[in-house]
Amino acid sequence: MLISRICFSLLISCLVWACKPAADENTKPVFYPWEKYLTAQIDSLSKHPQSVHKTIVLDGKKEEKVLTQIDWKQEWAMFLHADLNKPAALSSYDNLSEDGFLWYSLKSDENLPVKKLYIQLDALDRPAKAEIIIEEKNFLFETQKKLHMNFADGKVQTYSIDGTQQMRWLSPTHYQLMGVLLPK
Questions:
Q1: C-beta of residue 139 within 8 angstroms of C-beta of residue 20
Q2: Is residue 24's pLDDT more than 50?
Q3: Domain parsing of the chain, residue ranges
Q4: CB neighbour burial string for 81-92, b if at least 16 within 10 angstroms, e if fewer
């Protein structure tokens, strides 16, 4: 009898859960759909691969490479995570946008990693340039990152990450990553 009650309760719970209306995927985002735009760029690069000239500088030591195989989702993970259209962020930013550029700034009483997202638009309202500032601080470390992307005809041409990480009791680590997508 107990088992049948549990099964009945589970069945009812599943039915109630299944009958809830799904979130409307066509709902217009509050902020620029940054993650969606970059995901489309990643999909395009997966279908039409491009090489990238990548430069990494870690505490003054420089390394350069030309890469033909890149996991773009991993390469641009920090950029993707800067999307502001997440439930926790929807009321956390001031919209300081004007014609030709989008500018979202974290409200002073909020504590989220993305402090600023700035996107300059071209004549067709596609990104021409993007800048993101990310800062995180806790008991063990403090990080600051400036992310940049430059676009031509709505496609990523260059990207860079300039960051500093300060671990408690250790010297700060400074790093730069620069990528230039090479013509086919």
A1: no
A2: no
A3: 31-171
A4: ebbbbeeebeeb
